[in-house]
Amino acid sequence: MREDLFTSPAGVWTPISPRLATARGLVGSACGLFLVLVSLVLWLQLADLVDGWAWLLWLPGALGLALTAWVWWWAPRNRRSWGYAEDEDDFVVRGGIMFRRLVVVPYGRMQFVDVQSGPLARALGFGTVTLHTASTATAAAIPGVPLDEATRLRDRLTDLGEGHGAGV
Predict the structure, then answer these.
(1) What region holds the YdbS-like PH domain (predicted)?
(2) Is 99 exposed, middle or buried (0-12, 13-18, 19+ CB in 10 A)?
(3) Are 144 and 17 in contact (CB under 8 A)?
(4) What is the pairing mode between strands 83-86 and 126-133?
């Protein structure tokens, strides 16, 4: 019964791009590699000075490896939790694994639609679509939307917002 709270009124969720998980995995791996390199530099510089405590110099590296493994485990699960649905009068966005969120934005309340895509996201072919309303609490962001779908959503939501009396 608790699952009903996060079901789509339209009945079908549109998933986001699997490449979002890849991008997050790559960023996590870069951070993990940085920590491993920090450990290596510390060990090369300080191993003789700390004698029996040299193993402590590898703690950042171990943390980096753990971070990398966790991100590659977490990112696909998080990506699968995201979705959006287009209803007759509302746009619905969901996301989150542990702390789930469902945002329903009436088309008539939308003020503008923002599409963003950084260098890694562009290289992997996706962006983030953000719906803005007069209330900052109801802004809804959808990460990992394929670029062609992001363009379609931007145009469609803008038209629907204007058609439903947007511009509060």
Answers:
(1) 80-157
(2) exposed
(3) yes
(4) unpaired
| Nearest by Cα to 5 from 100, 143, 96, 84 | 100
Which runs of E-coded beta strand occur in the chain?
A: 14-15, 83-86, 90-95, 101-106, 110-116, 126-133, 140-146
Query: Angle at the Cα of 52 (from 50 to 55), degrees rounded to 5?
Result: 85
What tens digit of pLDDT does each residue of 118-167 get? 999 999 999 999 998 887 766 789 999 999 999 999 999 888 877 766 44
Q: What number of residues does the chain have?
A: 168
| Chain position carrying tokens 């062609």 | 148
pLDDT digits (tens, 9 = 90+) for 44-88: 888 788 877 888 889 999 999 999 999 999 999 999 999 999 888
Paired residues of 106 in beta bridges: 90
Query: Cα(151)–Cα(165) distance, rounded to whole angstroms?
Result: 22
- How far is Cα 168 from Cα 161, in angstroms, rounded to an integer? 11
**Residue 119: exposed, middle, or buried by beta-carbon count in 10 A (0-12, 13-18, 19+)?**
exposed
Question: Which residue's structure tokens are 């609490």?
Answer: 137
Predicted confidence at residue 52, as pLDDT, reads: 78
